[in-house]
Specification:
Layout (H helix, E strand, L loop, with lengths): L2 H14 L1 E4 L5 H16 L14 E4 L4 H7 L2 H9 L6 E2 L2 E7 L6 E4 L17 E7 L10 E3 L20 H4 L16 E3 L6 E5 L4 E3 L8 E9 L14 H4 L19
Antiparallel strand pairs: 1-9, 2-4, 3-11, 4-11, 5-10, 6-9, 6-11, 7-8, 7-10
Length: 261
């Protein structure tokens, strides 16, 4: 990735909360990931709480060599290095998210659980997921959706959402007017097989339903970084972060509080 493209992608990630990098996986590795994810998906029961995500199968790199290879995939780290996101580190595994044919949409949610921590005010990229798409993904078969900028700015929808991936959201009605709201600022993000979608964990995102006859599979890995301004950041640092006690323990919550403006 050339420097200009890297800067463009990082600025989009900072501003909108997501960006897409094409052709990160080689064809051979993509085929291997397809085979292994299909094998793993076929080997487990699919409980009712997987309804909206399609699947939620966490696989550690220590358990599956192909996942360990993905964690250390050199082309990805070349991209992150070019974007100056090289201080991020993997949580050590990936989640297989695979919508079967006919699966409903995934509800609006964000995945940040540290809203009581002043680091939530970070205007830079603080918490990311790397999503590798194993098939071409479109509105028809369940592409990614995002409401740009909602990792930095509160919108009315924030205050009406059931916390994600817990008992309430697992069994929410498909007719829920907020969780599945067709928000006017929402953007569909189709991706080709082998592409990488980088998302900010604080941004509101969802996925379309799968109206095709084939699985729609992606691999999602969480990556974190230290609670300090990154080296590329030259703008003002929020006062809440400057006053933040690095030794304090903050109660975890998925519900945005005072730190989301």
């Amino acid at each position: 990735m050339d420097p200009d493209t890297a800067l463009e992608k990082r600025n989009q990630l900072i501003k909108d909360g997501y960006c897409v990098v094409e052709e990160v996986l080689s064809d051979d590795f993509l085929d291997e990931l397809r085979r292994e994810t299909n094998r793993l998906l076929d080997s487990v029961a699919h409980p009712p709480e997987w309804k909206y995500q399609g699947s939620d199968l966490s696989v550690r790199g220590t358990a599956e060599p192909v996942i360990d290879r993905l964690i250390h995939w050199e082309p990805t780290w070349e991209v992150l290095n070019a974007m100056q996101l090289d201080d991020f580190y993997s949580h050590g595994g990936f989640i297989i998210l695979s919508k079967p044919p006919g699966a409903p949409p995934l509800y609006w949610h964000q995945d940040w659980m540290r809203w009581n921590d002043p680091i939530s005010t970070a205007p830079w990229v603080q918490y990311i997921f790397l999503s590798y798409y194993l098939v071409d993904t479109s509105i028809e078969n369940g592409c990614f959706r995002v409401i740009p900028g909602t990792h930095l700015n509160r919108i009315p929808l924030h205050d009406h959402l059931t916390p994600a991936h817990e008992q309430g959201a697992y069994y929410v009605s498909e007719s829920d007017p907020h969780m599945f709201y067709d928000h006017p600022d929402a953007i569909d993000v189709p991706a080709t097989a082998g592409s990488l979608v980088i998302g900010e964990g604080r941004v509101l995102h969802a996925a379309r339903g799968n109206r095709s006859t084939q699985r729609r599979t992606l691999l999602l890995g969480w990556h974190d970084r230290p609670c300090a301004a990154p080296r590329y950041w030259t703008d003002e640092v929020p006062e809440a972060i400057l006053r933040r006690d690095p030794e304090a323990e903050y109660e975890r919550t998925r519900s945005p509080g005072k730190y989301l403006a």
